[in-house]
Design brief:
Layout: H1 3-6, H2 20-28, E1 77-87, E2 94-104, H3 107-114, E3 133-139, E4 142-147, H4 155-169, E5 175-179, E6 182-183, H5 193-196, E7 200-204, E8 210-211, E9 214-221, E10 227-233, E11 239-246, E12 255-262, E13 269-276, E14 291-298
Parallel strand pairs: 4-5, 8-14
Antiparallel strand pairs: 1-2, 3-4, 5-6, 7-9, 9-12, 10-11, 10-13, 13-14
Helix pairs in contact: 3-4
Length: 299
């Protein structure tokens, strides 16, 4: 399965979808070389399966001949993948998404490897150290991944794996976890987005991007009246640009938003781009707002 097959239109009804050529054009732009805007990711809960696997059951007669997940042996390639990481929100820890280039046997392998490495955004973390997973494959009944280290008692950590692999696959397939040749008793599906994802998320710019003149910011949100407020701040916290845009909807998931940010006239240097849900209380509940940030450089 190559990246063109993975980036198909199966999730057009789930989220706005950028086309692969558009992504390549953005990442080829020297002013946006680090940008990885891509909205292919699964999030709909369409499978009535267990939300977490905490025990591995011995299978029937077939288990003796089933080696579990395995790659087909071809070499490493570089893939553009979605990677979910853990970050703080007003409602406790939730998942945020980055788009990164990673190496692997295929897009699933690359995405799984990515979440075993430190995230690009220092505000995020990952509970999965390198060596946590082995092989990962897609079968008729879902995605199968070999768990080498750690356990599945941390529901958010499990959802991090599920959302990442479903995003790489381009469809909400259930995820089966294996350990030492034994498959878990039931697969895991993605929990509702509003329950596990930050309600404000920046997809583009990527952390550390550099721009001249202007930039396009994109992300996903479930915001009050679909309104996304944004600011550009100096390192000392002073706001030098501000505005708002509108997400494509409100409801039981996150919706895409996009805006052009004028950076003309700003002195070259480092700035913080901030996207935040508006406060319907008129300022009384600022500490409860969902926020995401990216450090950018103005040339």
């Amino acid at each position: 399965m190559n990246i063109s097959e993975l980036l198909h239109d199966a999730v057009d009804g789930i989220e706005p979808a950028d086309r692969l050529q558009d992504i390549r054009e953005r990442t080829a732009n020297p002013q946006r070389a680090a940008a990885r805007p891509w909205f292919y990711a699964a999030g709909a809960t369409v499978l009535a399966t267990a939300a977490a696997v905490t025990a591995f059951a011995v299978l029937g007669d077939d288990s003796a001949t089933d080696p579990g997940p395995a790659h087909d042996g071809h070499g490493q390639e570089t893939f553009l993948v979605p990677a979910y990481f853990v970050g703080d929100t007003p409602r406790g820890e939730r998942l945020y998404r980055e788009f990164d280039e990673a190496e692997g046997h295929d897009a699933l392998d690359a995405a799984l490897d990515r979440i075993q490495q430190p995230p690009s955004d220092p505000d995020y973390t990952t509970p999965w150290p390198e060596g946590s997973f082995g092989d990962v494959t897609v079968r008729d009944d879902g995605i199968h991944v070999d768990l080498l280290e750690g356990d599945l008692t941390d529901e958010l950590a499990v959802q991090q794996v599920v959302y990442t692999l479903q995003g790489a696959a381009g469809e909400p397939l259930p995820v089966w976890f294996w350990r030492e040749g034994q498959r878990g008793s039931s697969p895991v599906s993605a929990l509702p987005q509003n329950d596990v994802l930050s309600l404000m998320s920046i997809s583009d710019p990527a952390e550390g991007n550099a721009y001249e003149g202007s930039m396009i910011a994109r992300g996903r949100a479930n915001a009050y009246e679909a309104t996304v407020v944004w600011e550009v701040r100096r390192p000392d916290g002073e706001t030098v640009r501000e505005g708002y845009t509108t997400a494509t909807g409100t409801g039981d998931k996150l919706y895409g938003w996009e805006t052009e940010v004028d950076l003309s006239g700003l002195a070259p240097g480092e700035y913080l781009f901030v996207a935040v849900n508006p406060d319907p209380s008129g300022g009384a509940e600022q500490s409860l707002l969902f926020t995401d940030t990216r450090t950018i450089t103005v040339r």
